[in-house]
């Protein structure tokens, strides 16, 4: 359903309706980002089961604590897409919607008769975002894909850890969240093409988990292609700039410091009282410092160890050298920058009471995003959606519920 993109909405995506058929993290997170900025997102879930993400840890008194933040601003509709009546309801909703986001294994929706080509017949303007582990094409397209294996497949995991120990995976679902950002980016790009170009049409967008991470690896690709170098794992930044890494202060607080340009190193050297390093051919440029990485880091580590965290932060902030304490979540809760930016907000939860969740980012000057409602209970909006969008009456809704279609 094409919208008039010239209309000044209260929220950037107000008037866009999205059917979120996806589960767990990557695609649902992308849908939530769109919902934060006004899209009407209807989360379609299996009756009596729902998205497994509802039950992922951590927990408090049996309640999943991830759900309130990752599924906010959505409505929940229960619908069994394996039943013919469920498919028919989906087709009717697609006719009244702009977009479908799904992450079933490649070919699943086609097997059920509700793949992109079938739904396009119902709504030629439909945009469909399809998220899988390995993409819709290629010899691995039908493989099951989760974030952690996809991270390894992308080349990312190979880089992380100590050389004498096994590679390590990120300690949270990094690839899923990065892919979710690609989902949101793909969604608004496809909508812009559809609505702002004379020849604009609906289309499907093929998003894969591994490609979302691999896209960030240009430094690996060019280096291997030109020099044959296989970059091995390291516990921190290496091969890009020196000095760089984690350093311990006098009061035993870990900070991270990086000098990504010679100008930044010049400021650091002056702060350290080591202007001699700026004219010493062993240290004067980043390229030569990289050949003496451990030595340069050692010089910086010895100096950092003579300063408390507060002394160091004040001194290097004034000099324009980027550093940060390595924050725990407790540090984050106490930090004034997080408070000023409203990065953590408090919402009411029907069972948990008051609970804190991430705020909305990025910050728009004229059409800011908002948290309009807490993440929905399973099927909370089923009757409302069927009644208000499709015009079903209470009797028909009751019959669908008896048949466990909803």
UniProtKB/TrEMBL annotation:
UniProt keywords, alphabetically: Transferase
A single Pfam family it belongs to is CoA_transf_3
Q: Which PANTHER family does the record associate with it?
A: SUCCINATE--HYDROXYMETHYLGLUTARATE COA-TRANSFERASE
- State the organism of origin: Psychrobacillus insolitus
Q: What is this protein called?
A: Formyl-CoA transferase
Q: Name one GO molecular function term.
A: CoA-transferase activity
Top-level lineage group: Bacteria
